[in-house]
Amino acid sequence: MEKGRSLISVISLIVSAATLILVLFLVFFMPGDHKAQGFAEVKGLAGELADNNLYRASVEEYKRALNDPNIDRETAANIDYMVGRIYFENLADYENAAAYYVRARALNPRGSFYDEAGKNLIYSLEKMGRVMDAKRELDRTVNIDSLRAGAGGKVIVARVGERPIYMSDVENDIQSFPLDMQKKFMDKKGKMEILMKRISLELMYQDAVRNGMDKDSDVLQKQKDLEKQVVVDKYYVTKILPQVNIDTSDVKNYYLANKKEKYGDKSYDDVRVKVLVDYQQEKSQRAFSDYIAKLAAIEKVQVFEENIK
């Protein structure tokens, strides 16, 4: 009887070991559809976050995918490029942009993004003050059109009186448009259209100055208001936003605290993007209020509410 039990125990142990081996085989050696699906999910969520101007949260999602030890070089290169674009286009963090562009190009020299990443890398190096590095990278480019576009050089494309208009002016105008619209002006015809609009603008501006409109009191006040708003926007981005750090556990707690009232008892995965948007907005507002309160104390602000009729 004891011998029979021992035999059953041995058989059970063998079956358990075989099951474990089978599970490990399925996880590590079967085709990676579930991995691809995981990467697609992460990229989809990161894209949604970026669409909602949650650029740092978007970068963190992409980094989650990059930290996966099973990620292939091509996927990693594409994600590195997307992270580089966010740092370059949305956060103006040229040091991180340059680092991710270098990684993307190194991982996949044949990637469709290779030339664009190269141009943006050069621009990032220039913005960082690394002119020689930028020139060295530029010298490695063999296509003359890519050279000009990458350098954003002082190539004169028109002149209005004594005022030159450079190719870089046209390119900057194009880059001020949303990405989808930019594509419409990438060829010569599109660039000529932008150039003619800039010429028209310059002609009207010069005539307005000749007529003294630049000294008009309304214009001067609007210039002052616009300048103040631009400076304040820059201040907000550089001083206040960096204090808004997204804590994953804190986001989950925020969801749980508002699950019924704000999210109708839906699962976290179903409302994750909305939770992140709400969380960042609330945290940004709190950071803004705290910062303003601190500045108000320093400047000894007084409010005379009784005078408001």
Question: How do you describe this structure in short?
Answer:
This protein is mostly helical.
- Please state the CA-atom Rg, rounded to the nearest Å: 28 Å
Termini gap: 99 Å
CATH class of the largest domain: Mainly Alpha
Strand tally: 2
Helices and strands, in order, run as HHHHHHHHEEHHHHHH
**CATH superfamily caption of the largest domain:** Tetratricopeptide repeat domain
Strand arrangement across the biggest beta sheet? 1-2
Rounded mean pLDDT is: 77
Summed up, the domain count is: 3
Strand content: under 5%
Describe what this molecule looks like in 3D.
There is one protein chain. A two-stranded antiparallel sheet has the order 1-2. It is 71% helix and 3% strand. α2 packs antiparallel against α3 and α3 packs antiparallel against α4. It folds into 3 domains: 31-151, Tetratricopeptide repeat domain (Serine Threonine Protein Phosphatase 5, Tetratricopeptide repeat), CATH 1.25.40; 152-215, Orthogonal Bundle (Helicase, Ruva Protein, domain 3); 246-307, no CATH class. The longest helix has 28 residues, at 272-299. The protein has 309 residues and is an all-alpha fold. The protein has helices spanning 2-28, 33-51, 55-66, 73-90, 94-107, 114-127, 131-139, 144-151, 167-175, 179-182, 188-210, 217-240, 248-258, 272-299, and strands spanning 156-160, 163-166. The chain is built from 14 helices and 2 strands; from the N terminus they run ααααααααββαααααα.
